[in-house]
Design a protein that fits this description.
This protein is an alpha/beta fold. It has two domains: 1-62, no CATH class; 63-337, Rossmann fold (3-Layer(aba) Sandwich), CATH 3.40.50. It has helices at 3-6, 8-28, 44-60, 82-85, 127-130, 140-152, 168-179, 193-202, 218-222, 237-257, 276-291, 299-302, 318-332; strands at 30-32, 42-43, 64-65, 75-78, 98-101, 119-125, 156-162, 186-190, 215-216, 261-265, 295-297. It is globular, with a radius of gyration of 24 Å. It starts with a helix and ends in a 10-residue tail after the last helix.
Length: 342
């Protein structure tokens, strides 16, 4: 007598299990690639999971404001892709894994070095603040803390709030919702190119149907679009200049109300001078600092526009990050005497 005859129920369970595994495997194949799936090749399994997630969001959450930050209390190893390396100056960064350790408040560590610091300094910006492909002990927000500590003889915690693709509206959300409750002594803000890209393509900070949208629904959560191609538009440069200027002024007024010392930084770059609007955005930063009597750190003027310091158009090499840290520290050190301790 065969096994199937002796154990018909077990045999039936085994056969059904194999069939389910086969169906699961077929469902994992990436067969769908059309407008309904946001032009991304997705498997049936992926579509079902996303549909289920969308229902949960729509029924239980609805619309919400997205705080673009790294997932707190996580650790990952990030490596630049082969395609990414084709856009990098030769021999400037290594194609290796870079550690990204995120603290309990969504900042890139090391951050809470001291349990009771004399000062907390928060850096906000995009990928040029984040310094993803720089070793964690050479990212300028961290290095600045160690240099200031040594020079001032104080306990300094610095926090790296940079997130790739964030523009100034994302940093305003972070400032209001997680930075101000920390009661920082100083907030350092550096934005330019991400704002420029958003404003050039969308004409406003209030764009929709994007994974970067500030107000989101399930559609934005599950999309792969940075900016929806059907919604791209252009506006006069004067409108873009005014929009960026207003966001910087919001930073200034919010920090003033809450008694936080705000520092503005221009963005170092290797951008061709023909992109006049990009360079004018750095001028706006300079003008806002001057008109509002703020400390301004002019990285665009100080960091050499060479591959040894900036490996593409905007991002620091390890050498560039350390060079920036030294210059930033020189400007922040005098401020520590004039701001309240945390």
């Amino acid at each position: 007598m065969s096994f199937f005859e002796k154990h018909p129920k077990l045999a039936l369970i085994g056969v059904n299990g194999l069939l389910l595994l086969a169906i699961y495997g077929l469902a994992s194949l990436k067969l769908f690639n059309n407008a309904a799936t946001e032009y991304q090749s997705k498997s049936l399994k992926k579509l079902i999971l996303e549909k289920h997630a969308a229902l949960i969001i729509d029924r239980n959450v609805g619309r919400f404001i997205k705080l673009r930050e790294y997932l707190p209390n996580t650790e990952t190893l990030e490596r630049p892709s082969r395609d990414y390396m084709t856009h990098v100056a030769p021999n400037t960064i290594e194609r290796k894994y870079y550690r990204l350790a995120i603290d309990s408040n969504g900042f890139i560590g090391p951050s809470d070095i001291h349990a009771s610091p004399d000062h907390k300094i928060v850096f906000l910006g995009g990928s040029t603040t984040e310094c993803l492909y720089v070793d964690e002990d050479k990212r300028f927000p961290y290095v600045v803390g160690r240099q200031l500590e040594s020079a001032a003889g104080l306990k300094i915690n610095t926090y790296n709030g940079g997130v790739s693709a964030n523009e100034s509206m994302h940093s305003l959300n972070a400032l209001i919702n997680k930075v101000l409750p920390m009661k920082p002594s100083i907030v350092v803000v550096m934005h330019n190119v991400n704002d420029l890209v958003a404003l050039r393509t969308q004409g406003s900070y209030w764009y929709t149907h994007s994974r970067k949208s500030h107000v989101q629904t399930s559609r934005e959560v599950l999309t792969r679009y940075e900016f929806h191609p059907a919604e791209m538009q252009t506006k006069p440069e004067a409108d873009l200049i005014q929009a960026f200027s207003k966001n910087l002024q919001m930073f200034i007024e919010i920090c003033k109300i809450h008694g936080v010392q705000l520092v503005l930084m221009t963005q170092a770059n290797r951008v061709d001078r023909s992109d006049t609007l990009y360079h004018y955005f750095n001028d706006i930063i300079r003008n806002k600092a001057r008109d509002n009597h703020l400390t301004m750190i002019d990285l665009a003027q100080h960091i050499p526009a060479e591959p040894d310091f900036i490996y593409d158009h905007y991002h620091y090499t390890a050498q560039g990050s350390l060079y920036a840290a030294e210059y930033i520290s020189q400007h922040l050190l005098p401020l520590l005497k004039g701001v309240k301790r945390s």
